Amino acid sequence: MKLLPNVNLSVKKAVHHILPRVCKNHPQAAVLAVNTVLHDCSDPNPEIKCLGITTLCAIPEFVEHVPGAVHASLSDSHPKVRLAAVNGCKSLHSHTPQAASEQGLINILYSLVRDSDPRVSTAAILALDFLLAEEGGIIVTKAMAKHLLRRLEHYPPVQLASVLQAVAKYKPKEEDEVFEELSLIDPYLVHSQCPAVNVNCINLFLDLIEDNYAHLIDQLVERSSPGLIAYLSSASESTASTVLKFLLSERGKAWLKNLPSADLMPRIAESPSVKIKKLSLIAITCKETEADDILAAVTPFCYDKSCGSQAVRCICKVRSNLEATSSKCLAVLLQLLETSETDVLRNCLVGLETFSMEGIPRSEISALLEKVVDRIDLFKPETIPAVAPHLLGLYGELLPTAPYVLEHLVNNYNQLQFDTK
């Protein structure tokens, strides 16, 4: 409390940062702090004013003092102060949900959507979406949508992504209005600074054309694909993840048809999450002409503990989608069965459970059976994988020792750990 009035900005920032926590644990501290916090809300230094308004809105005990300070800050001449006040409305709503509407803040926030500062404008949109979540979020009128669309070029990338998402809430009714909106957002299909801009722009495009102008979707895919592909090679996990999430969605399917699988190939340095998502998509995009290169590139990832199981599933999925690759995919799995690494062996045996042997030469199936039986420990029934009895039941006649192995499994039935349904 003694440090709160300190004129040193660094000290004041630190104290304001911990004050909400202090007041939560010691409510009586709010009584001691309120006058200083209110004084900071009217300080001539915008930085201090921002600290004051942020703290005022964050502490429930201060709620009766909020109206005057927040109303004044929302109309302050400095954009940082207005931004702090807008974000403060979200903090206020978190602990006192009715306060924003009772204090007339909703209408002020709607007016701030037209604020000259793009960050304040975007913050107002997000705040309204948060405050009005139970009612479906912000209501975007024709006039608001038109205003935002005309100002798109003024928004920084991150804010632009949020604005495009908000504009999607307005549904134009006239054809001229639809195509005017399409022309205004078209440049952002090839945006190169923020993947969320591209993805939100694509989604907005789809909202406008998929019902009555579906024939334009192919052109949309062609125009927007290069930008999405460029992001896939980014070293930033969040950048790649944003695009991958879209491609894995129902709407993203149209973009997978002509997407070269090589552009999806993961890198060792990438996060497990990104590698797993990329491998999931490769299994879908892989074409017969790419199969040899893709199988060779995916195989090393089967030994990667962070994504090994997904790499094996990718190989099995390629076989499922491309009949002609069945022997090549089986050859990779046979190679994996040679490993001494327990995780790799387990992933391979699990993958074989869904691997179709249809169309594969009997000699190759026989080699697989021998390898599987060779890699299981019959003296540890609890470790025997489900694929063993599955393959023996279907192709046991190809293996001379199959009756003895099956007899052993039956005799130790109660110790088997896999799903026997």
TrEMBL record:
**UniProtKB keywords:** Membrane, Protein transport, Transport
The keyword Nucleotidyltransferase belongs to this UniProt entry's keyword annotation: no
Under what name is this protein listed?
Clathrin/coatomer adaptor adaptin-like N-terminal domain-containing protein
Q: Where in the cell is it found?
A: Endomembrane system
Q: What Pfam family does this protein match (any one)?
A: Adaptin_N
Organism ancestry: Eukaryota, Metazoa, Ecdysozoa, Arthropoda, Hexapoda
Q: What is its main location?
A: membrane
Identify the species of origin.
Cloeon dipterum
Q: Which GO terms describe its cellular component?
A: endomembrane system; membrane coat
Q: Which InterPro entries match?
A: AP_beta, ARM-like, ARM-type_fold, Clathrin/coatomer_adapt-like_N
Q: What sections of the protein cross the membrane?
A: none
